[in-house]
Amino acid sequence: MEDKQSNAVPVLELDELDRKVVDSFPGKIVRKDLTALMKRGANVPTFVLEYLLGMYCSTEDDESVAQGLDRIRKILAQNYVRPDESERIKSKIRELRTYTIIDKVTAKVDEYRDMHVAAFSNLAIDPIVMPDEYVREYPKMLSGGMWCIAQMEYFRLEDELEDELADIICEPKKPKSMPKRNAGPEDNPFRITNLTPIQMPRLDLASIIGQRVNFTTGEWIDLILRSAGYEPSGLDLRTKLHFLERMVPLVERNYNLCELGPRGTGKSHVYNEVSPYAILLSGGQTTTANLFGRLNASARKATSLDRTGLVGNWDCVTFDEVAGMHFKDMNAIQILKGYMAGGTYARGRESFTADASMVFEGNINDSVHNVLKTTHLFDPFPPEFNDDSAFFDRIHCYLPGWEVPKMRSDLLTEHYGLITDCLGEFCKEMRRRDYTHHIDDYFRLNSELNTRDEIGVRKTFSGLMKLIFPDEVMDKEDARIILDYAVEGRRRVKEQLKIMAGVEFMDVNLGYVDAENPADARAITVPEQSDGTLVPEAPLQPGHVFAVGRSVDDEYAIYKLENKAVAGSFRFENEGIGGNRAARESIEAAWRCFENNGDKVATGMHMQLKDYLLFVNDMQAKGPSDEVGLAEFIGLCSAACNRPVAASLVIPGVVRLSGTMDELKGLEDILRVAKHAGAKRILLPFSTIKDFQDVPMELASSVSPDFYQDGDVVNAARKALGI
């Protein structure tokens, strides 16, 4: 009873999109519920199943569909060649002299015998002669191979010749002798007598694109998702874009995508089932030779895979479970970085160019909120990658996998969609096109994008546009939606780089302006990341100040110094500095300066009647700093006179035990850190005015300076406190 139910034909109620798809793409569609039904009991490529479904189940009559499904099961059981059954199938062909098989066929030129030869993926009978007419008709066999239904024949030429000769001279047959020459493909008794492609031998791309005008944008997105096996009816636009983003590496050359998120969200589905041109490396394990080719692969017998590796033979290489990525040869990481940057790599004395996209996917085992509190969103990568900001800077887009719903039955479509092979060929053909320039039709990217940022944004935009607007017909609002998503994906990368490497990647306010109205500027944020406003616009409590300075690791960062004055006998205690000697001396110098000069800042402070407590808050976890002395002096003054410093103010500057101040250096870096922390004002000595001419105008105008007399800590405190 259970078997009968499992084999029952599902009932399909056609919706409006189904009817439009049936009318628009005759011969190129299939019911995806039938594909799912057959996949349960048949471990064969999806496009093989969908070819057979299109042949035997292209009807709405349930009884005919049921009969077609039974026939497909028999065909797969009898004719599909599994690797472990190769010898059984060979024996079957020999016994019956002719037999039909289903297998992947790859052809190449044998220039020494002036012929085409073929090899099967599972049937071990290569090399075998491939008739030239099939190669001319199906050239795809020469570039990666294609799945076919092949009529095979077992035929020995010497047997026939000996039979004919014996009949003429009336003599018994002579024992067979070994050939005097080496046996070649022409001597193989197995022959291909007929060949029918299961995959599409070629795609009329124009006919697919030409149908785009008949669908709304929402309908076309739903069609693409249904063709990939997803049911979009319960998804919002943002989630749909996440699913489409997974397909961008299939339509965009040399595209680098990272997706990390919870388990069970179907991260590898697209690369396993949708395109025959993508390869999934489970566990992230590979070798340098496998990925980029062998050093000694210049010999005549070397295959294309030997020479160029996976990146030269596939459109997309996906590393599954990045936590397990491991290269025995650490030089592979450097080769990988170079390839991700420019699509070229060297093996020995040879240089190669390839256009395979790279996808890195894996799991995040904690909430995003908790991860960001302690580390960054690239943390699941292994240690040899985790300290290499240059590697992550090559990633064009970070897809937030935690926003993708876990796969469940209602996310798998039961409706009509393009056959998987048609979708795969569409993606393949769209790789030849470039839509990156269409951003400029409506928008201009802002100055915070560096070259790599711009490349990443443009590639993501181009890929999504190819999927959603392949006919290049798109209005401004459509372009804005795609551009917002593209910028966000790249900014997510930059936010993590900022955490990892500090000042070098502080320009994270990526955005754009309207080409027709430059005053209409927009900066794109990422939902999971704080907006970077460490310095609030509201006034602080008396004694609280924000400092900016270099950490002990030479990274500029923001520090909040929280001073509190209570009744006492002029004692000073502090917490949060740690054991760093230079940082402790900086705070001690500020206290000594307060002892000597504090009462000059304001009248009626009664400094000696109070105790002072300090807590140092390392806002960006960069480690302690010895450049917060001036800020601490002002914080003590603020606590003593119970007067807050100016709102949204940050204070750089070094105070020495002698009471002197160091010359302020690194103004551009200081301003940049202050800006990204949300500061609106900064306290600076007059001597820095000359340095502003070397600071970019956009940066200089973002934080307003309040100037004080050089070396005068009292004047600086008065400026900060508004006295």
Helix content: 25-40%
| Number of helices in the DSSP assignment | 27
**The CATH top-level class label of the largest domain:** Alpha Beta
Most strands sheet: 7 strands, mixed
The whole-angstrom Rg is: 34 Å
Average pLDDT metric: 87
Briefly note the CATH topology name of the largest domain. Answer: Rossmann fold
Strand order of the largest sheet: 20-21-19-18-22-23-24
Classify the secondary structure makeup into a structural class. Answer: alpha/beta
Quantity of strands, as a count: 24
Which descriptor suits the 3D outline? elongated
Low-confidence stretches: 1-6
Number of discrete domains: 5
What percent of residues are in strands? 15-25%
Task: Just name the CATH architecture of the largest domain.
Answer: 3-Layer(aba) Sandwich
Give the terminus-to-terminus CA distance. Answer: 89 Å
Layout: helices, strands, pairs:
Elements: H1 2-6, H2 16-24, E1 29-31, H3 32-39, H4 46-56, H5 62-79, H6 86-96, E2 98-110, E3 115-120, E4 128-129, H7 132-137, E5 146-154, H8 157-169, E6 190-197, H9 205-210, H10 217-227, H11 237-245, H12 248-251, E7 256-261, H13 269-274, E8 278-281, H14 288-292, H15 304-308, E9 316-319, H16 331-342, E10 344-347, E11 350-353, E12 357-363, H17 368-374, H18 383-386, H19 389-392, E13 397-400, E14 416-418, H20 420-430, E15 443-445, H21 451-468, H22 476-501, E16 511-514, E17 521-523, E18 544-550, E19 556-567, E20 572-575, H23 581-597, E21 610-618, H24 629-641, E22 649-651, H25 667-676, E23 681-685, H26 697-700, E24 704-708, H27 713-721
Parallel strand pairs: 7-12, 7-13, 8-9, 9-12, 18-22, 20-21, 22-23, 23-24
Antiparallel strand pairs: 1-14, 2-3, 2-5, 3-4, 5-6, 10-11, 15-16, 16-17, 18-19, 19-21
